[in-house]
Write a structure and sequence with these properties.
single chain, alpha+beta, 383 residues, Heat Shock Protein 90, 9 helices, four-stranded antiparallel sheet, 3 domains, five-stranded mixed sheet
Length: 383
């Protein structure tokens, strides 16, 4: 099924991008406008101060005083031609009193931020004053507002995605559990019937070989039903010997594999390895990994199962000499429905990962894979 190029998620993403972009552009334009106005205010303040000193008529005193007194927010530092600080306004008085280098730091900051206003004395060409000014809190707020907005939006998106992901996983888990329980339930009735028929065949002196094979198939179906029943609920973990469990599954698959496939079980000097397991589910994982290895080799090759232990953990590597997994597919092999086989539902590895990571609190991942050389799956479990 071809997915539409445009859907509601794409539409929401485009709208969000447009809104954020528009806000950033508008904020920057507004910041430039405020910066221009603040420079004009600084120039007016400088001219008013000089006029107050030089105008002996007193006619402009009131207007000049209003301009000077009206500057409550724009920080300004005045220096002379020798770069010595003459005066400053609207700096933090506590910082000025407690930090001798505070004014020098602010002067350096103002120099980097804005071009100074230069005033030359008309009567003395050697007398030059420079007025360095900083940004008001309003301008800083307008400039940093888009960053704050982006942070809030990013936080909102993260919370939303986390909530949706958690909700999706919860629903997915409920579907998994419901499907598994229903499968076990559906298998229960025909299994009981088959067991009855097998017992009747035994009593009627039917061919012993046929009855034996049918009993094995019924036991196999009972095992499958038991596995689905346990995966649909929280299984009870009990101490079991990992070596025995793995050995039994390797022997089981070996009997059903082509003669050109060789099996190797490498466990070093480990004779017993006790760990909390759900045997039916753990066996299912080993079986899935071995069957995948068989499918990858197409009738010939070597499957090597390696068991190693540390003080608190142990690892099981299942390596094959098959066709390998393409790099772009390595992260997809555990997703439900993904398969490269012509036949298959793509659920085996997904179920295996669920069993190991959710039920046994371990890890299952592709250790490495090379096209044409083979693949190694690694399982890590606690003792």
């Amino acid at each position: 099924m071809i997915q539409p190029l445009f859907n509601w998620r794409t539409g929401l993403a485009i709208i969000a991008i447009v809104i954020v972009s528009g806000t950033i552009i508008y904020s920057q334009l507004l910041a430039k406008k405020i910066a221009t106005e603040e420079r004009q205010r600084a120039e007016q303040w400088v001219e008013a101060g000089k006029l107050l000193v030089n105008d002996t008529s007193g006619m402009s005193d009131r207007l000049v005083s209003l301009i000077i007194a009206g500057n409550h927010s724009l920080p300004i530092i005045e220096t002379d031609e020798k770069d010595s600080v003459v005066q400053h306004v609207n700096l933090d008085s506590m910082s000025v009193a407690n930090d001798p280098g505070y004014v020098t730091k602010k002067l350096k900051e103002f120099r980097a931020g804005n071009e100074p206003i230069t005033w030359k004395d008309p009567g003395d060409s050697t007398r030059i004053n420079y007025y360095y000014f900083g940004n008001t809190s309003l301008l800083n707020q307008v400039r940093y507002y888009p960053l704050v907005q982006l942070l809030i939006i990013a936080l909102f998106i993260i919370i939303t995605i986390t909530a949706l992901t958690t909700s999706f996983r919860s629903v997915q888990n409920q579907v998994w559990a419901g499907m598994a329980k229903e499968t076990a339930h559906q298998l229960g009735t025909p299994l009981s019937s088959l067991q009855g028929w097998v017992e009747m065949l035994k009593e009627s002196n039917a061919d012993e070989k046929i009855v034996h094979e049918m009993s094995k198939d019924v036991d196999r179906l009972k095992l499958v039903s038991d596995r689905f029943g346990k995966i649909g609920s929280s299984p009870h973990l009990e101490p079991n010997d990992v070596i025995l469990q793995v050995t039994a599954m390797v022997e089981y698959i070996k009997k059903r594999a082509p003669g050109k496939v060789h099996f190797l079980l490498e466990k070093g000097n480990i004779e017993t390895l006790i760990a909390p397991l759900s045997p039916p589910l753990f066996d299912w994982v080993i079986e899935n990994l071995l069957k995948n290895a068989l499918d990858a080799m197409e009738g010939k090759g070597t499957i090597t199962v390696t068991i190693e232990e540390t003080e608190k953990q142990f690892t099981i590597d299942v390596a094959d000499s098959g066709k390998g997994i393409a790099r772009q597919n390595i992260n997809r092999v555990f997703k439900p429905g993904f398969t490269t086989k012509k036949r298959g539902w793509g659920l085996g590895l997904s179920l295996s990962k669920r069993i190991i990571e959710q039920y046994h609190k371990g890890q299952l991942f592709v250790k490495h894979s090379d096209l044409g050389k083979g693949t190694t799956f690694r399982m890590i479990l606690n003792k």
